[in-house]
Amino acid sequence: MEKRDLYDENRNLTGKTIFKNEEIPEGYFILMVVAFIQNPEGKFLIQKRSEEKGGEWAFTGGHPKAGETSLQGIKTEIKEELGIDIDNPILFKEASGKNTYCDLYYINKNVNLADVVIQEEEVAEVKFATKEEIEEMFENGIFKKGHYMMFKDCLNYLNKK
């Protein structure tokens, strides 16, 4: 069973862990990582989550395993869910929520969809989408709300580049 590290309110590792589906104890935080992979045409790689995971469209991401750094975690998630190796993800935002720290990564990479190997228990489908297509998917209720809000952070980051 997969474990996750617990962090304190200052984002310091506590040395404590919990199992993947275990409730986060009061006063502790876990880490989440999300990747925004953009191809040279400006489209973003999105994935439809498996029905067991809600069936919504989202970006690739998840929770690093215990002992993994944020950077290691994002590389692991992309490799596990999509079968893609990533060299230089750019951490552009560290955010926090109720009991979660969230690191957002930007990756500019020409990914050939034919080379993507999806993790079927997590992902049902992948495709590239424009900003406008993602906005429309969100408006139609088929794009994960939290991921859409983080996407807006990504767009702000790209506008400042």
- Share in β-strands: 25-35%
Number of strands: 9
Unreliable runs, pLDDT <50, ≥5 residues?
A: none
Calculate the terminal CA-CA distance, rounded to whole Å. 41 Å
Whole-angstrom Rg: 15 Å
Strand order of the largest sheet: 6-3-8-7
Strand-and-helix sequence, N→C? EEEEEEHEEEHH
Largest sheet: 4 strands, mixed
How would the global form be characterised? Answer: globular
SS-derived structural category: alpha+beta
In DSSP terms (H or I, runs of 4 or more residues), the helix count works out at 3
Mean pLDDT: 95
Helix content: 10-25%
Topology record:
Elements lengths: L2 E5 L5 E7 L10 E9 L5 E6 L7 E2 L1 E3 L7 H13 L7 E7 L3 E9 L14 E7 L1 H9 L5 H16 L1
Parallel strand pairs: 3-8
Antiparallel strand pairs: 1-2, 3-6, 4-5, 4-9, 7-8
Please describe the structure with a list of short key phrases separated by commas or semicolons.
161 residues; alpha+beta; 3-stranded antiparallel beta sheet; 3 helices; 9 strands; 24% helix
Structural notes for this entry:
The chain has 3 helices and 9 strands; from the N terminus they run E-E-E-E-E-E-H-E-E-E-H-H. It has 161 residues and is of the alpha+beta class. Strand 7 and strand 8 form a beta hairpin. It is globular, with a radius of gyration of 15 Å.
Q: Could you provide a short overview of the structure?
A:
By secondary structure, the chain is α+β, with helices and mostly antiparallel strands.
